[in-house]
Each structure stands twice: as structure tokens, then as C-alpha cells.
Amino acid sequence: MTVTKLSGVKITGVACAVPEGIDRLKDSSGLFSAEEIAKISASTGVQRRHVGGDLCTSDLCFAAAEKLLDKSDFSRNEIDLLIFVSQTPDYNLPATSCCLQERLRLSNDCASFDVNLGCSGYVYGLWIAANMIAAGNTRRVQIGRASCRERV
Fold it and tell me: What's the pLDDT at 66?
């Protein structure tokens, strides 16, 4: 197991956004048998999931980022880096982070890039952000982590 210790770095806020639509696992009989549904539910604990309908992944990141920015004690121009983490980016090109940077009205001096990972992506995003701050290259980093799939 890898352990990283960084000093002088802290998380100052966390926000989330979820779609309003809900699919219940028990209503998935068209996709899975009753036995499979019971097995999935027992092994994962999942009973329902939020679904995005017409939402893009960046819509969820935008909503969460706006919450953070509205509650923060610094301006949008103070954000040095935007990291967008997802296995379901809006586009391959341009990078979804660049679209978010524009939509969030962040400075043109703010660096942005995508990290295309699934479950471990949030940890990797935090690690990258913390290392960038610890190295003295950045002071404030916004990380967006989301996944959005169409209703099946």
C-alpha cells in the first residue's frame, strides 16, 4: 500500500450534485431476472440509483462547483487549477475541464485537464492536486468528479 504524506495542504470544501431522476433496481426486470436483482442488491447494497436523463457529466460538476465557489472566501480568479475526473467525460476533445473552466468563468490563467478514471479517480485527483500545491505550482485547486449515464 502506498502512503503519501503532504504538509501545508488542506481540503477547504466539498460539495456534490446528483440528478433528480431515480431508477429503482427492483424495476430493472427487463434487464435482469429477479434472482440477479436480488444478488446485485445483496452484494452491493444498491437499491436505487440517480439518473441524469438529459444531463451531461459537466452539468453535475458545474452545479457542485458553483456551490463551492458561492460559499468560499476567495474569488474565481484565485483558482489556479481545475481537475475534471470522470470515466464519462462529455467529449474526448475538447477536454471537459476546458469547457467547465469557461462555464465557471475561471481565469484564463487557470490550468485545466481531465483525468479519465472511474472509482479511483477521486483519490488520484486529490493526490494530483495535493502534489501540485505542495510543489508550489498552485495555491487553489478545484476538482470535479462525476459520472453520468443515460437511463437504461
Answer: 92
Residue 127 phi/psi, 5-degree rounding, is -65, -45
Counting Cα atoms < 13 Å in the Cβ hemisphere of 56 gives 10
**pTM > 0.90:** no
Query: Taking a C-beta distance cutoff of 8 angstroms, is the pair 152, 92 a contact?
Result: no
Sheet (strand 141-145) strand order: 111-115, 81-85, 141-145
Tell me whether residue 142 is exposed, middle or buried, using C-beta atoms within 10 angstroms of its C-beta: 0 to 12, 13 to 18, 19 or more.
buried
Q: What is the pLDDT of residues 39-54, one digit of tens each?
A: 888 888 878 777 777 8
Distances from the Cα of 48 to the Cαs of 51, 52, 110, 114, 141, in angstroms? 10, 13, 37, 28, 32
Q: What percent of the chain has pLDDT over 90?
A: 22
DSSP state of 136: T
Question: Is residue 118 within 8 Å of 87, Cβ to Cβ?
Answer: yes
